[in-house]
Specification:
Layout: H1 12-38, E1 48-49, E2 53-57, H2 63-70, H3 73-76, H4 87-100, E3 103-108, E4 114-124, E5 129-137, H5 145-158, E6 164-170, H6 174-182, E7 186-194, E8 200-209, H7 210-216
Parallel strand pairs: 5-6
Antiparallel strand pairs: 1-2, 2-3, 3-4, 4-5, 6-8, 7-8
Length: about 220
């Protein structure tokens, strides 16, 4: 390569492009930091792809497929709404998911079928936090691997915009509490919150921060 050619390291054009690229990288980093400080631009229904699963926005036409995944009573036996495996009860859950504008269909990439759902909700721009909840998977996909990838995808997206993610689970739902502990979430507080039927139920709140997630994320890969 000849000295002074457009691709030569000492070319004035090369030096200028290098300076511009460095500035763009710095601006992009600052922009990402600004987004996390303000929550601005948080897309509550992106399409997220992992090795095992894909998350996409839930659609009205997904009802039958999602109900098929949810119609196992064992899924809900520790849940405050333990009859959600019934079609009419699940209909209320599904309608609320669509209305939330933050719900996902969880699709197993190998088979292409819907195996569960989750959602972002209660985005709080003032405190820079969002809730991940209303999550369930078919029993075939219990055991950690699929849930870890699900949470990894949702947490990594959330932490582009907020500093903390919270999870609210029923006080008696020990299975979900153990799953949250496995991904590094810490117990925050107990809370009495209204359920879909208007009754007040006891819940526990867990939280994970962007800082603590970076510590546990490598373990979540396995």
């Amino acid at each position: 390569m000849q000295a002074g050619s457009p691709r030569s390291p000492e070319s004035p054009r090369y030096v200028k492009l290098k300076a511009v690229n460095s500035k763009l990288i710095k601006n992009n980093r600052q922009s990402g930091s600004d987004r996390r400080r303000t929550g601005v631009g948080f897309d509550l229904q992106p399409t997220l792809k992992g090795e095992l699963i894909e998350l996409r926005p839930l659609r009205p036409q997904d009802f039958d497929s999602l109900f098929s995944a949810a119609s196992d009573p064992k899924i809900w036996e520790q849940h405050p709404e333990s009859d959600r495996y019934q079609r009419e009860v699940f209909q209320g859950f599904f309608d609320g998911a669509l209305e939330s504008k933050g719900a996902f269909a969880i699709i197993e990439r190998k088979s292409g079928r819907i195996i569960g759902s989750s959602r972002y909700c209660n985005l709080d721009l003032t405190n820079r936090e969002v809730e991940i909840g209303w999550t369930f998977l078919e029993r075939e996909f219990w055991g950690g691997t699929y849930n870890r990838e699900l949470k990894q995808l949702m947490l990594e997206h959330a932490f582009r915009f907020v500093d903390r993610v919270v999870f609210v689970v029923g006080e008696q739902n020990l299975r979900s509490q153990k799953a949250l502990a496995k991904i590094g979430a810490d117990f925050l507080k107990k809370a009495q919150l209204p359920a879909a039927d208007g009754t007040i139920r006891r819940n526990v709140v867990f939280a994970i921060t962007a800082k603590s997630y970076r510590v546990v994320a490598p373990a979540a890969q396995h």
